[in-house]
Design goal:
The structure holds 2 protein chains of 2 kinds. Chain A is α/β, with parallel strands linked by helices. Helix content of chain A is 43%, strand content 22%. Chain A has 10 helices and 14 strands. In chain A, strands 1, 5, 6, 7, 8 and 14 form a 6-stranded mixed sheet that branches. In chain A, α1 crosses α2 and α4 crosses α9. Chain A is flat, with a radius of gyration of 27 Å. The chains are: A alpha/beta, B alpha/beta.
Chain lengths: 283, 383
């Protein structure tokens, strides 16, 4: 590469010399390059000759947004006799409100979600999905709306926000959980870390309250449901093992994805998302 | 019109040739694919286990790549399970009437034998030629018309003739007490008994020592006459009433715990692990108590987003306790965990969380716990 950089001035001089010698050939080459650039630009998504986002066009004309949801996962989504409720149902309706359209929630089994998105039965999925690298050729994943990963819970007087702070101490985990696996990895990295295994995440957090462990590494949902009734404990601001929940849309719906991303960003910024989550995970 | 001088033409031609050559090489490279992994059978193995009750239901039916079949069975052997249940669909073997293709079955049986595993073969599904033409009636793969029962029995006979001395038994059909498994029709214990009779006779005609397992009944509370299924305890009673007793050597049963602990007592209104004792009671009542029950499907799910699942630690504790109980039951010979691994976790989340190993062969904690149990090691996940 450095060879070519060093030779660049002489190559430019050579090009200029050849262009002076063959002006019509140089002009033709420039025209071809300009035409190629124009063709590339005009066939980009949204450009006059490029692919159009018919989904966004339909959403605007009909004023509706179809969201696929698996209602078997309370408190994220649950099917009550009256309606579909939960964090994901509320988020779907809030996104529709911000886009100025009516949200229609279509319920389906988890294994049908991507099929419904692929076949166009729904415009997006809000169903506790993680980004799947094998699907990104056609699925667009939004920024996360929730992190359900493993989080440290510790006494309010001696808060622990990082696994490194547990060197020489003990951590309580739910046996065989991803928190257990993470703690085992950290045990190899730290000089000394004692792992206390408990059957349930609640048992692990109780062990911290009773002074048997310096912190508990448990899933965020369990922690958020447990803490309101146990004010002596506090949850770290960041998860130790991330497990982001994201919205899935078709990659070809580039205008819809852009508008949903903007709406989600606004919902996060003005605290609406925190309110929704707090409402359902207040214990 | 622009005219090019001869040297320029020659240079342009040379450039064109170089670019064409480069494109050809790139194209050729793009079509190259790595050779499939070469599978070598290797020396025969034996299973190291302290508990022969431990068994697992594998899912090799749709596994195309041979190295994955081998790897699956290696991991089963390393886990300490000496027996597997595997599905051998009739349409795979007899795509055309009277013409058998055993390639897939041969591969599985050979690899299982090489790992020292005993296979209990589950036989079922229906080829297109044995079902009504689609313009007459739309049917599912589990729809077997009564006038083709003898064809299925012929398949059972052919399977037993080929593998009878190398396997632990054959299961006749799967969950006939569910409409879904009985061609989307109301379950029919008398019709199933007839299928069992023909299959039993065909199997024993070619190999008198073969163990024929009947039933493979699913736990359900659906009452008789339901469009979805029939309570398995009632279904078994109806089987006996239809004269099924002489036509099976062991009863295959499915028993799931869902959110219940394994020690929860059997209850006709509740689907829990010990519900299998209700089936045992029916067998004793009909004078068939000498026959064993093989639990060919069982287990707990730790799917974090299923209300009928348990936490991972509970799953381990419940599974090991269930294995203890099954070992203590004199009438139960195996407890086969549903399921070891499936080819793709992506398309079936429910089963993915029943699996002991992920589709990319990651051994879950439940695998390590069952392995420790089966091989007499200390449980690495004891709370």
């Amino acid at each position: 590469m450095s060879h070519w950089i060093a030779r660049a001035p002489s190559l430019l001089r050579d090009c200029r010399r050849r262009a002076r010698r063959h002006p019509r050939l140089a002009l033709a080459a420039l025209l071809v390059i300009a035409a190629a650039l124009a063709a590339w630009r005009l066939t980009q998504p949204g450009a006059p000759f490029g692919p159009q986002d018919s989904t966004w066009r339909r959403v605007q004309i009909n004023g509706d947004l179809y969201v696929g949801l698996d209602p078997s996962y309370p408190p994220f989504a649950e099917w009550t006799p009256e309606q579909i409720v939960g964090i994901e149902a509320d988020l779907a309706r809030e996104i529709g409100r911000r886009l100025g359209v009516e949200t229609h929630i279509l319920i389906m089994g988890y294994d049908s979600l991507y099929d419904a998105l692929y076949t166009g039965n729904v415009d997006m999925l809000i169903a506790g999905l993680h980004p799947d690298s094998t699907l990104t050729h056609w699925v667009y994943y939004s920024q996360p709306y929730f992190d359900a990963g493993q989080v440290l819970v510790s006494p309010r007087e001696e808060p622990v926000s990082d696994m490194r702070a547990l060197d020489g101490k003990s951590v309580a985990v739910e046996v065989a959980s991803s928190g257990d696996a993470a703690a085992r990895r950290w045990a190899r990295r730290l000089r000394a870390l004692t792992i206390e295994r408990h059957l349930l995440p609640q048992d692990a957090m109780r062990a911290v309250e009773e002074g048997q462990a310096a912190a508990a590494l448990v899933d965020t949902v369990s922690a958020r449901l447990y803490l309101p009734a146990h004010p002596r404990l506090v949850m770290a601001a960041e998860t130790t093992v991330a497990e982001p929940y994201v919205i899935a849309m078709r990659r070809g719906d580039f205008r819809l994805t852009a508008h949903v991303e903007r709406a989600l960003k606004a919902i996060k910024a003005d605290g609406a998302l925190d309110e929704i989550i707090a409402h359902w995970l207040s214990g | 019109m622009m005219r090019l001088t001869r040297p320029v033409q020659r240079k342009a031609l040379a450039h064109l040739l170089r670019v064409s050559g480069l494109l050809f090489v790139v194209g050729a490279l793009a079509t190259l694919r790595p050779a499939p992994p070469r599978v070598v059978m290797g020396p025969p193995h034996t299973v190291q286990t302290v508990n022969p009750t431990v068994c697992v239901h594998t899912r090799l039916t749709d596994e195309v790549e041979e190295w994955k079949i081998q790897r699956t069975l290696q991991m089963v052997r390393e886990m300490g399970a000496a027996t597997i249940v595997e599905f051998f669909p009739w349409p795979y073997a007899e795509r055309e009437r009277g013409s058998y293709d055993w390639a897939h079955a041969d591969r599985i049986i050979q690899h299982a034998e090489n790992q020292g595993l005993t296979v209990i073969a589950r036989l079922g599904l229906v080829p297109a030629w044995a079902r009504p033409p689609v313009h007459e009636k739309v049917t599912t793969l589990t729809y077997l018309p009564a006038d083709h029962f003898d064809d299925f029995a012929r398949y059972v006979g052919a399977f037993v003739a080929r593998y009878g001395d190398r396997i632990g038994g054959v299961i006749i059909w799967n969950e006939p007490n569910l409409s879904y498994e009985w061609g989307d029709r109301s379950p029919d214990p008398a019709a199933y008994t007839e299928l069992l009779r023909l299959s039993y006779q065909a199997a024993h005609a070619v190999n008198p020592n073969i163990v024929v397992l009947g039933g493979a009944l699913a736990p359900t509370n659906e009452p008789e006459g339901s469009g979805s299924g029939m309570n398995e305890v009632r279904f078994l009673e109806r089987m006996y009433e239809a004269g099924a007793a002489p036509y099976f050597d062991a009863l295959a049963a499915h028993t799931y715990g869902f959110t219940h602990a394994p020690a929860d007592p059997p209850d006709p209104q509740t689907i829990n692990f010990r519900r299998v004792e209700l089936l045992r009671a029916v067998m004793v009542r009909y004078g068939d108590g000498a026959k064993p029950i093989t639990i060919t499907e069982s287990g707990w799910s730790d799917d974090p987003r299923w209300t009928r699942a348990v936490r991972p630690g509970q799953r381990i504790a419940y599974t090991l306790a269930a294995l203890d109980m099954a070992t203590a039951w004199p009438w139960a010979d195996h407890l086969c965990l549903w399921q070891f691994r499936q080819p793709s976790d992506f398309h079936n989340r429910r089963d993915a969380y029943y699996a002991l190993v992920s589709s990319d062969f990651f051994a879950k904690p439940i695998y390590e716990a069952v392995q420790a149990y089966a091989r007499g090691w200390e449980n690495p996940y004891a709370p």
